[in-house]
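R.M. (postdoc): so does anyone remember the format we settled on? I'll just put the structure tokens first.
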């Protein structure tokens, strides 16, 4: 969807295995750094299984999710203070298999914050959760229901039980597997109308369009690579008249299937793609951060628009695919000159 009222991403905040705040994370990603560590588990070939963890490796997922939120909220408070935000609803992407106890734990942590309280909408769609959350935020802002909306992504694939299950299904990177490195993160984006006084064009980007699609066959049930569903999302941009972007940020797991899926979809929709193709994968530095991948992809795209500009105004496409079949993409554009937020006051 495209908004008749211009909507901007005012700023971003969060944490990953590369940092307790988003600024050091982006700087490390820009330098090609990673923080992969031994999980203590081995794959069927006897090779150590690595993960991109921020928290202690022995913590269960429920405590990891809660801990990631608590850490990310510190960075988010600074962002909201700088923008003068007193309250805003939260659209939160979470794992597709999040259970009731985990949701309660996360909700308890979030509800401590006066600027969020109980106004939380959950999007349990894994990696592609960001895109329906963005679409919902755009709708709220366009009709004037709120001055600000927060879109977040939260996930951890680093709990020992989760890593063990991924090893069993041969999904982790190994000598004979184009697999993933499990990661974890919590990343938030603050959205507002582009004409709002809080929107500083030197530190913001316009959210031009969002596309969503759901496959009839989840990734976990496929027996061959297909780019049909991703191409459908990209086609929505072309048919809406979106000009060519300058770079693509892939926010998937890093597994070979998703790289091949993009290759097929790219060839069908080359009209909107960079020429020559310029693409980066967030998982190269932080592993598969699941439902936080989309918001982190937005942040990294903005960082690249500042540090490696391709013209007077930059354009980037961010996309992801979930194991459960959801596909999403977004295009951002603008001329930011700084990826670091202004100070409050």
């Amino acid at each position: 969807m495209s908004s008749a009222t211009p909507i901007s991403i005012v700023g971003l905040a969060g944490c990953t295995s590369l940092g307790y705040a988003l600024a050091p994370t982006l700087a490390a990603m820009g330098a090609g750094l990673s923080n992969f560590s031994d999980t203590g588990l081995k794959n069927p070939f006897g090779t150590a299984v690595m993960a991109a963890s921020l928290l202690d490796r022995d913590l269960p997922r429920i405590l990891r999710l809660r801990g990631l939120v608590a850490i990310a909220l510190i960075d988010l408070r600074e962002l909201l203070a700088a923008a003068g935000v007193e309250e805003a609803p939260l659209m939160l992407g979470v794992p597709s298999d999040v259970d009731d106890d985990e949701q309660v734990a996360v909700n308890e942590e979030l509800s401590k914050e006066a600027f969020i309280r109980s106004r939380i909408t959950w999007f349990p769609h894994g990696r592609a959760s960001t895109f329906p959350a963005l679409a919902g935020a755009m709708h709220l802002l366009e009709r004037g229901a709120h001055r600000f909306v927060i879109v977040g992504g939260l996930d951890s694939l680093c709990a020992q039980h989760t890593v063990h299950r991924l090893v069993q299904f041969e999904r982790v990177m190994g000598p004979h597997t184009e697999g993933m490195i499990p990661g974890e993160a919590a990343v938030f984006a603050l959205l507002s109308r582009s004409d709002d006084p809080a929107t500083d064009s030197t530190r913001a980007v316009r959210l031009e369009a969002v596309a969503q699609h759901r496959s009839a066959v989840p990734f976990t049930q496929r027996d061959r690579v297909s780019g049909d569903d991703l191409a459908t999302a990209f086609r929505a941009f072309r048919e809406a008249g979106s000009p060519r972007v300058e770079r693509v940020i892939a926010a998937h797991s890093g597994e070979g299937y998703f790289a091949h899926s993009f290759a097929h979809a790219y060839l069908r929709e080359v009209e909107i793609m960079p020429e020559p193709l310029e693409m980066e994968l967030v998982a190269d530095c932080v592993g598969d951060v699941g439902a936080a991948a989309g918001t982190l992809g937005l942040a990294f795209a903005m960082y690249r628009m500042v540090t490696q500009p391709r013209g007077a105004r930059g354009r980037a496409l961010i996309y992801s695919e979930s194991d459960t079949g959801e596909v999403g993409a977004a295009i951002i554009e603008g001329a930011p000159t700084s990826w670091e937020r202004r100070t409050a006051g």
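R.M.: ...and that's the designed sequence above, right after the tokens. Also worth knowing: The domain at 205-334 is CATH 3.40.47.10 (Peroxisomal Thiolase; Chain A, domain 1). The two ends are 35 Å apart (CA to CA).
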